[in-house]
Write a structure and sequence with these properties.
- The protein has 151 residues and is mostly helical.
- It has one domain.
- Helices cover 92% and strands 0% of the residues.
- α1 crosses α2, α1 runs antiparallel to α5 and α2 packs antiparallel against α3.
- The radius of gyration is 21 Å and the shape is globular.
- The protein starts with a helix and ends with a helix.
Length: 151
């Protein structure tokens, strides 16, 4: 029974370790997809433009997510670093979007930024709720395993 208990804990440890390392990429992907979908709808992008915007937003979301994790707690430094990344995105989008679309995008950049921050806040809230429920489930499972191991 002790071997079963040890194996159970090892499986949970490996699973949570893998989830923690892939979490950044998953967050960046969700972030990019959410922003891209909104831009596709509002700017009325064609298929080529939609694919290019998705690729650009994926790259930008990965960079911003990395910056936020690297400088966690230093909002001023995060804002400075992100500003440079977003300026690069503006240049790339200028080559993809029509003049009218780019003007609409450029005028709504603050709106897109706000939507992105709200989306990230909702992901953070969901993540903490999921983590709490996973911890409760693990405690119940380990308590159940210990009870059955004692029998």
């Amino acid at each position: 029974m002790k071997k079963l208990l040890v194996m159970t804990f090892m499986v949970f440890g490996i699973a949570f370790g893998a989830a923690a390392t892939g979490n950044t990429a998953l967050i960046a992907e969700k972030r990019a997809n959410h922003l891209s979908e909104q831009m596709i709808r509002e700017l009325r992008l064609n298929n080529y433009q939609a694919n290019r915007v998705r690729a650009i937003n994926m790259d930008v979301a990965a960079q911003i997510t990395e910056i936020e994790q690297k400088y966690n707690g230093n909002q001023q430094l995060i804002d400075e670093q992100c500003k440079a990344v977003l300026a690069t995105r503006d240049i790339e989008l200028e080559d993809v979007l029509s003049t009218v679309q780019y003007n609409d995008y450029f005028g709504d950049r603050k709106v897109y930024s706000k939507v992105d921050k709200e989306f990230m806040a909702s992901i953070t809230e969901q993540g903490s709720e999921n983590l709490a429920s996973n911890e409760k489930a693990n405690r119940k499972a380990s308590a159940g395993s210990l009870a059955s191991a004692g029998n």
